[in-house]
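Per reviewer request, we include the raw input and output of the structure prediction for the construct analysed in the revised manuscript.
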Amino acid sequence: ALLRAVNVLLQQRRYHAALAVLKGFRNGAVYGAKIRAPHALVMTFLFKSGSLREKLKSIAQATYTHSRNLAYFVFTYKGLMALQSRLQGKKIPFHSFFAACIGGWLVFGENNPINSQIIMYLLSRVLFGLSRLAVEKGYVPQPKQDPFPLVAALIWGTVLWLFEYHRQTLQPSLQSSMTYLYDDSNVWHDVSDFLIYNKRTGSE
């Protein structure tokens, strides 16, 4: 009977906006955990030192933070979208920008490793999206050739230049990845740390 009553409630159109906010919270929490858990697992066991307990705690903390923040953001965004639409009687493009700005400020405004990674992930996609939009709207002429090879060349050229000469400007996890790829590959003592291991036990 309880399940039937809940299902009836979920079908009520007048509660749709509020229920969509709640489901958005749920989806944000689940998606955040799905995205962060495997990433944290791999990065922690590849690059972090410490006991197994410390590593598992770090993975759990990163997963919780990402899941919580994404859930809070989706809840805030969808709640503000519903509120604005109700107040103005319709949905307009500015509503999305304003609601997301408020959510970004409140939820992702703290400068920590998790938020930093999320913002950098979004930044690259925003730049690509704005570039495509500029072409679609005619603000930038349609390229005669695919610009992606040039973009790839400039991005890799710039990031390796920063790594070699201004390493401190790069995000810590990127520094770790590049140290493994470009610095650690310059050092070995015998076949064990040339092919099998990255570093010998106890080696610098």
